[in-house]
Amino acid sequence: MNIVDAILITIQVATSLILIVFILLHSGRGGGLSDMFGGVAGGSLAGSTVVEKNLDRLTVVVSLVFAFSTMLLSLRLI
Length: 78
Fold this sequence. Notes:
Elements: H1 3-25, H2 45-76
Helix pairs in contact: 1-2
């Protein structure tokens, strides 16, 4: 295993853990785990929409990094 493979595996593990956390922070039907960090049900919706939009953007970026690292890692291990 060379240094590039080690870097790709590290990126893969880090992005997978971050992606799990971001997905769990999203509010679902019952409010999700994001209620722990800002949350009274029926509180001010102005701040939560900005937070949700930013969380959505971060989740998309991390998922793209995860997908590209998966493809690069699979091509390098062939």
